[in-house]
Structures are given as structure tokens and as C-alpha cells.
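Handout, page 2. Input:
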Amino acid sequence: MPRRTSSTEGRVELTWPGKATLPATVAAGPLTLRERVGEASDWHDRLIWGDNSLALAALREELGAAVDLVYIDPPFDVGASHYLRRGEVEVVAYRDTWGGPGYLSMLYPRLSLLRALMKPTATIAVHVGIQVCHHVRVVMDEVFGAGNFVNQIAWKRYSAHNDAGQGARRLGAVHDVLLIYGMGPERTWTTLRAPYDKDYVAKWYRHVEPGTGRRFMSSPLTAPGGAAKGNPSYEFLGVRRFWRYGQATMEGLYRSGRVYQSRPGAVPRQKHYLDEQEGVPLQDVWTDIRALQGTHAERVGYDTQKPEALLERIVHMCSRPGDLVLDAFAGSGTTAAVAARCGRRWVVIDRSQPAFTVTRRRLRAMTRCGEAGPFAVLDALPAARRALLERVGEAELRRRVLALHGATICLEGQVHGRRGDAAVVVALGERPPTALEVATWLGAARSAGAAALEVVAWAFEPSIHDLDTPDVTWWEVPRAFAEGEEARPRRVPRLSLAIEETSAGRALRLTDYAGPVDDAPDSWAPLGVEAIVEWAIDDRCEGSVFVPRWSAQRGRDGALELRSPPLAEAGRVVVEAVDASGRISTRAIG
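Output:
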């Protein structure tokens, strides 16, 4: 292990353009409960949708230093986009195009926020690529202390890369890096063991026991010290020697089949069975877990999905049953899935809509079959929207949205702007616009001489689909806009349902779906129910929180149940559907 610098010698520190001074100040707006899956009596696991810096600050206010294990798999700063792929549909899951200083400026304060959530016995594992691991390690030395470094693990993902065959003048890059740091010397730790490799087994466990087929190696039963060491001398299986054990013990080994004699008269040796050995203690090069391929059953179509076996190893090594595991870059949800199966509590966070919908679908399915417990879905976006509104003011916020929408400001009563022949209303309040409000705005638009109405909002109350008129289009301000990006409003997907009366009650059937296509916000097309990958129903509607009482997911064979079971309740029903691109559409009936 390399020598550590002492406190009097100072420390190595990495600087870059734009580096902020820690601790980073992040406003801790409260998280909004969006959905409950199952009923929890005490603790509920959490899937949080939104910017992880906002979510981590809110968790610090609520939980304090309560986390036992942090695993994060942040972007690798490779200068490319990564995708969610389902069938022929391909959508950007996240863009990994930070570029050097920007990447470190993103990661540095988040590491500090994570540290504030960790117990004194906690461990953090940061999964990074070879392009940035050297920078990230120095940053982690600064945040966690160089003395708390535990391991730098090389995870061999692939057996080989044909970089040379593609003209590259370098060696094939086949591994990622895991940087492990603890909060202190009392960190939770379990030494894991790996199976012996094939060459070791072939060399040392070369004997196979007749009848059982068990492999074993043998070791001497003789005692090299002889009489001088006080070892007993007697005849055993026709051989007189000084032996390691007394005669009674030797006879017991023989009766239990633990003695190996290659031939009559040969010196007996002791058997050690391969299947009884613990294996070799795990080292810092992991070659026995491969990256996921298309044939793996756990694949969900997420480009950078990590294998469950990798997370299982980290969870078992650095936590105990009942501990709290946190992942601030949840991606496809592997950390939550593994934590649930291993009996750990979990909190996972991601701002990407494709990542959020994939993770939620995965966890819903696990909860339905009993592999995961109840969990809550929380949203950091409302707090981000409120902070943005307070920072720039309503008028400026509306001006920015109109500019991104390609509309001109034109205040005429309740109308805020014009885009071509259409009047534009920008509704940026916390309460989603209702069908009644949209109908009122349509009347105002017509009074102002507009041929159509475009309503732009953060989100809409599900009843808007009841207003069936071609003169109105609904546009959502993307979540990324509230998080600081210049993102244009997008058309709201439209879900069509049919109500079927049965003797047991109403049943709902998906009949059609239309929504944006490709990456063009103005595009719109009838996509059909074939585009839906999941839908869920809440037939009790307890306030603003969605509680799915029934859900269906498209299987690997492409089949999706399009008709719900009969609903016993006669009141309002809210339906939520997700398409292959991760877009969410909500519809209310009754």
C-alpha cells in the first residue's frame, strides 16, 4: 500500500475551472409524494424523480446521517449519449457530454452531499470509467479523506475489445473502476470469497473420489518433527511413521472417508474436498462477472445497465441485512432491485424520465410478485419549479417559455401570446389546469380572434382529455427546463380508453394512443396501443397521490393485457400509461 502523507505534510488537491468551495449550498425543498406502491407500516423504500442534488439535500433534512452504503454509477464523461432501447424504439436516456471541468463540477458537490448522509460506519462505491477515474479518486481523497481510501477495483467487463482491428494504436480497454472509500476505520465490511479458478482446481484438486465424483486434494498426515516434537509413532494402514494425530483421531478420519492412500503400502494422506472450501478471499481485480448481453434475462434495454451480480457483491461486502442503501444515479434500477432481494432498505434517485419509468416498472413488477416491499415515489421537481419561480418571477418565467415555444407575447385578457393562428396560454401555477379552465381559455381565445388555442403548463389534470376538440392542443414544459436547461415545450400524449360494463363492474380497455415522435417537440402521430409498455389503474383516487391497484406490463414476448379486470368501485378512476420512450400519459374517468 503506498505511503500516506501526514496532516503536517498537507494533501494533494485537484483544481479546475469553475470549482466551487465546499460545502455546496443546495436549497432543501421538500419532496412531493407522487405515488405509493403497496402499504408500508413504518419505513418505505423510495424512488425519487429529479435532480439528485435537490433530492439529497431534502433527504439530509429528513433522515440525517442514516445511510449505510452508497453506490453510484455516474456518467463516465465519454462525450456521447446513452439510450433506452425497446424493440425498434430508441430514446436518449441521458447525455454524457460534460467535458472535463463540467463533469467534475457536477460530481464534486454531489459527493459532499452524499457524505453528509452517511453513517460513521458507512462505505461509498463510485463506479467510473478509465477516462476519469484518476481525477475522481483525487476528488474523493479531498471529500472523504485519503486515509479513508479502501480499494481501487478493476472490474473486467469484457474478455476482449478489437480496438487494434479498428485501427486504434492502443491496448483494448476491457475494464471499469470501482473506487471504495469508508467514512472511518469502523466501516461495515464482510470479507467475501471467490471460487478457485479452473487452473488452480486442475493443479491442486486433481483427484476425483470414486462413487461420489467429489474433487479433493491431499495433504501429509506425517509429522516431520518426529519424536523431537512429541509426535506419536505407530502403524497405520500398514505404514509406520510419526503422525500428526493420535491413533484414535486417525482411525476416525479413516472411518469418515477422509484418508487417501494411492495404493496399498503407500503413505496415507488426508483428503480436503473442493466443495467444502470457502474459496480464495476476493481481490481487487474482478474477472468473474461479465457485462450484460442481449440474451440476459435481466436486461431492460438500458444502455449502461449493470449486472445484478456486481451489485450483489458490493451490497454483501459493505452492508448488512436491514441497512440503508442509496444510489443517486439510479439508471435502470439495479441497485434498488438487488437491495430489495438482499433484505436491505433502499433510496434511489434519477432525473432522466426513461430511467425513472424503467426503474419504476421494474420495482412495481418485483413488488407484485413479492420480491420487493412497498415503496413510495417522490418528486423533486415541484420544489425546483417553486425555486425557479421565486428566483426569476412569474412574468420572466412566462416570457422564457413563450420564447422557447416560438410564440410572441400578446397579452389579451387571459391570453399570453400568439403562435401563428393560435392563441397561447402559459399556466405555470402549482395546480395543473383542468378541463373547465381550458374551456374558459378557449372561449377567450376565440373572442380574441384566434383560430385555435395552445395551453402550455408544467402538467395537466387528467380530465383535460374529456375536452374533445381539435381546436385545443396541450403542451408540457419539460422537467429539464425547471432544472436549468433550455428545453422547448412538448405535445402532451393522448390516451384513449373504452369503458366496458360487466356483471362484476366496469372494465377499462386501451383503445388508442397518440403522442410526440422522434425528438421534435412539435411532431405528433397516432402511435396506437402498440407503443404502450405499461399501464396502471387507481380506482380509489385518495387525493393527489397515485396508488396503482392494478397494473400490466408488456412481456418479453411483446404481449400486453389491454383490458383491466372489473373495477368494483363506481367512482373516479385514474389511468396512467407509459410508452416505449418513457413518456407518461394520464387519463381520468368519472
